[in-house]
Design goal:
2 copies of one chain form a homodimer. Chain A has 14 helices and 10 strands. The first copy, chain A, has 322 residues and is an alpha/beta fold. In chain A, helix 3 crosses helix 8, helix 8 crosses helix 9 and helix 12 packs across helix 13.
């Protein structure tokens, strides 16, 4: 049996992140409060370093390396926020980092990862298996692989965002969190159970990729094909052993939203809250809007984790313009 | 001689705003800091209520009304942020508000102002004089006219944003503020002189509408035609007696930037800081970028007031897309 991380691990992670991660603001929206007769608290991880909560988990994991691990450095495979999170954390902690990325990843993402000082090793996603490529390099160089979500230190790090939220708001009635591989959702659930035990905790997935919802209902991890959705950070095919173990115990339900709902939420964030939020970062609020719209949050105090803001500007402009 | 408001008026305004205005976050950008070798502190008034600093001045002015004034209410002419600021402040304080707006103002702005509970009185900007229209209604109804910038209580209210910034950062080397009619610039200068006397204070105008710069150099208020610029909040034709009196005494220089520089700054805010900022709100940072680019801010601690985020989404998307 897998030994799951605990809330104490979140507390320890918070101490490691002190002075390195931003304590992101909790913003309010009187428009949302008035429209739905509830109180919304938005924990804005789009203002986190490198633009997403992923910095928390990566930094926590890397800062636990021993001297030998630190000398050899960290390796990760990702074309998204985890790549930049590991790259930036490694730079801050003074260790080498290798990121294995698809050769045809957007040039901007390759450049951003290199800008943070990481070595980018490209692979051909049509002929090569990225895990095999990564493990080979890790073995050759003695580097430590940091997976994007299914790792106790990553989960504990991600949990610090919800912890900061509850420290600021006190107990809440509900907490909405986006769900991809489950790192943020499971970490948030650890904090919720400790600091706001009565809160309903909801993970939110794209409709097209509801593997988490299926897993929760089936009682085991369900694998799906890579889903087609604008929420590129939630295109995961399955939960992990650690994340599912926490989610099945501590999460009340897993909800889904459509891409159209994500765009509506993105427009609300831009127009009413003056924030740029990436599609994946809109999942939690889109589900909260749907529940509020049907009267399900009346009079409640509702936490929403806004997970990130990394979206290509041309794509963002196109989504806003509709 | 006009009796100018003082820093004590800013302190008194802050007490009135307590619990009504948001204490907006001061955000950082390690990208900006690294790129230019300086420390930037962004006071984000785009996250203020109704999306701009204007709420501060309007609320301060209205909250000083006596019983008779309160009963009759407030009147303003504006098609921009001042309209919504007066409307929202009046609603909070439980008094009537009339906003005189051009009949052909964007439907969204008319709707937003009505949504805040104000009565909108349209006028024809080709055949009618808005000041005359406004004064007539004010006289008929006994309402108190709140001008958008040239009023001691408005100036004192706007000064509370810079005060909060300095409270958080301590003294700075430079402060950049957007300049239209001068309410925010003069209020900010009062706070700067009290809390950071050595800071250089810069007002920033659109290149096309540099009446403030001309006025500072001429030593008297210069009037210009309505300038063509995307910074619609800074299309003022002249400073006011109060604002010019403070600016000539307390502001070090007035700088100008082009519309292209505003768009660059807007893109930086969206891409790097995940914030929606309206064109006028980009003035201060655009000028700071230009000065930093030429090495003029090396090693300095620099305050930038981000004044607002109210921009029509379709227009915003078009500007981002370039």
């Amino acid at each position: 049996m897998t030994l799951l991380p605990t809330y104490q691990d979140v507390v320890d992670a918070a101490a490691r992140l002190e002075g390195h991660a931003h304590r992101t603001p909790v913003l309010r929206s009187s428009t949302a409060d008035t429209r739905w007769g509830a109180e919304f608290f938005f924990k804005c991880e789009n203002f986190q370093r490198m633009g997403a909560f992923k910095f928390r988990g990566a930094f926590n994991a890397l800062s636990k390396f021993d001297a030998a691990q630190k000398k050899a450095g960290a390796i990760a495979f990702s074309s998204g926020n985890h790549a930049q999170a590991v790259a930036l954390s490694a730079r801050i902690l003074g260790m080498p980092a290798v990121i294995v990325m698809p050769r045809d990843a957007p040039a901007a993402k390759l450049a951003a990862t290199r800008e943070y000082g990481a070595e980018v090793i490209p692979y051909d996603r049509f002929t090569e298996d990225r895990e095999a490529v990564t493990k080979k390099i890790a073995a050759e160089r003695g580097m430590t692989l940091i997976p994007p979500y299914d790792h106790p230190d990553v989960i504990a790090g991600q949990g610090t965002a919800a912890r900061e939220l509850f420290e600021e708001t006190g107990p809440l009635d509900a907490l909405f969190v986006c769900l991809g591989g489950g790192g943020l959702t499971s970490g948030s659930a650890l904090s919720a159970r400790a600091l706001s035990p009565q809160a309903k905790v909801y993970g939110v997935e794209p409709e097209a990729g509801n593997d988490g919802q299926q897993s929760l209902r089936a009682g085991h991890i369900v694998h799906i094909d890579t889903p087609k959705t604008i929420a590129d950070g939630a295109q995961t095919q399955h939960l992990g052993d650690y994340t599912f173990g926490i989610i099945r115990r501590d999460v009340d339900d897993i909800l889904t939203v459509s891409d159209a709902q994500l765009v509506d939420a993105m427009r609300f964030f831009a127009e009413r809250m003056k924030m740029v939020v990436e599609p994946t970062g809109c999942l939690a609020f889109a589900a909260a809007c749907a529940m509020a719209e049907s009267g399900g949050l009346k009079g409640q105090r509702v936490g929403v984790i806004v997970s990130g803001g990394n979206v290509d500007l041309a794509r963002y402009a196109a989504l806003l313009a509709g």
